[in-house]
Amino acid sequence: MKAIFLCVLWLTTFQVWGEVFPPDDVSAIDKPNDNGSAIILLWKKMDYETAKIFYVTYIATSPSGPFLVQPIQSSIINFKTDLPQSFGFAEDNKNWHALEITDYLLAGGEKKDMIEQNKTYYLRIGVKEGKDGNVVMHPKTFGVTPHGNYFAFNKLNNFLLFIFLTVVIIVFINLAKKNPNLFVRRIAGLEAMDDALGRATEMGRPVLFVHGLKYMHEVPTIAAVNILGRIAKKVAEFDTGLKVANWDPVIQQVSRETVKESYIEAGRPDAYKEENIYFASSEQFSYAAAVEGLMVREKPAANFYFGYFYAESLLLSETGNAAGSIQIAGTDAFTQIPFFITTCDYTLIGEELYAASAYLSREPKLLGSLKGQDLGKLMIIIVLVLGTIFTTFGWEGFSKIFWPM
Q1: Is residue 402 classed as helix, strand or coil in its secondary structure?
Q2: What's the longest Cα–Cα distance across the chain?
Q3: Is residue 262 scored above 90 in pLDDT?
Q4: I need a surface site. Which of 302, 320, 337, 355 has the fewest CB within 10 A?
Q5: DSSP alpha helices (H): ranges in 1-151?
Q6: Structure confidence at residue 404 as a pLDDT band (50, 70, 90)
Q7: Is 342 left (phi over 0), alpha (psi -120 to 50) or beta?
Q8: Which residue, 302, 174, 284, 315, is CA-closest to 238?
Q9: Residue whose C-alpha is closest to residue 232's, from 264, 203, 184
């Protein structure tokens, strides 16, 4: 009987007469964990909400107005559950509306103004049935002043992960200083490097090095120059010729200094020839044509392609293959890896390019960083597996720990 009475009461007060009531427990807060560029209006979900119920919000920079009407909000959107970075994952979040405001319409509704730090804003809220219904206003005005936060506590999981990986890398660097022979998975292409250089020495033909078409500040080019230094040192020890074709003047100068230093380390500064580290062309296919011409004329015994490549990868490697060269390539350009695998004798895939410097030099900082990152990747894989298992069985708490806020 009580349920029937409540239904009749609801029908007579709402469905028949169309009477609506303003929301309860309204408040305005500064958005937590941000730079002070947003505010949030909160109000509790009302029992009679349907798709026909709409909320209207007003904003002003003075408690006496003028209050500017903002876009009408449907009652079926904008909940705390949509802002987990601010309110977490509490079960009660689904019972609260949360309207995040980062900008607002000015008079006439034509231009938007952004929320500013340390400036007080005043908000009002009303409710209506249907978009054309009369607005029933909440009697109070809610003031809020946004402030920037020094710490984004919603990113604490990222910070802790950063600390963990940093500690792991430092530990492995110290271990590498004590034992430079830490195990690193065998990379066939790098182990074949000495054989390729030895073949070039026996045949009396030069070695060609190409470091892709990225600029000097790009990570693939930096990795390629590091590898060039190791190859140049071996070339100097074997007394073999080295050709380095460059497409950028900055890379050319860095390559010259790198090769020169390697020759000095090998005790052969007299064998260094600056003209062998030359500028070919700054245009992609002109550069490819120049390098192909060198391959056809001088027939280098070994070609090394390390860096980031584009469509010229197949042109270069196919010409080198036709010239009878041993070819070793390494790139993180996934679109070009199939071409290198097809035409080269050995191919370093993806991050093997970055591991090559540590693999060849056994320098403690590089080796320790490599081992530390590998352990970090292993931990991430374990977390992904556990998260998949827990989520499959409905235990979502574990995955929420790593939520990308």
Answers
A1: coil
A2: 105
A3: yes
A4: 337
A5: 2-10, 84-87
A6: low
A7: alpha
A8: 302
A9: 264
Amino acid at 135: V
Rg of the Cα atoms in the chain: 33
Task: Tell me the two tokens of residue 241.
Answer: 């010729």
Torsion of CA 81, 84, 87, 88, to 10 degrees: 110
Task: For residue 369, give the nearest of 172, 144, 200, 191 by alpha carbon.
Answer: 172
347 bridge partner residues: 329
- Per the document, the length of the chain is 405
Nearest to 233 by CA among 206, 257, 270, 268: 268
CA 210, distance to chain mean position in Å, is 28
| Domains recognised in the chain with CATH numbers | 21-150 (2.60.40.10), 182-361 (3.40.50)
Question: Using CA atoms, how far apart are residues 5 and 15, in angstroms rounded to an integer?
Answer: 15
Distance between CA atoms of residues 327 and 304, nearest Å? 6
Q: Which residues pair with 104 in a beta bridge?
A: 113
| 334 and 350 Cβ atoms separated by less than 8 Å | yes
Q: Which segments within 215-325 are labelled E, that is strand? A: 242-246, 277-279, 302-306
Burial readout 223-260 (b: 16 or more C-beta within 10 A, e: otherwise)? bbbbbbbbbbbbbbbbebbbbbbbbbeebbebbbebbb
- pLDDT one-digit tens code per residue, 65-119: 889 989 888 888 899 988 888 888 888 899 999 999 989 888 777 778 899 999 9
For residues 29, 34, 36, 41, the Cα torsion angle rounded to the nearest 10 degrees is -20
Q: What are phi and psi of 243, to 5 degrees?
A: -115, 130
Tell whether pTM > 0.90: no
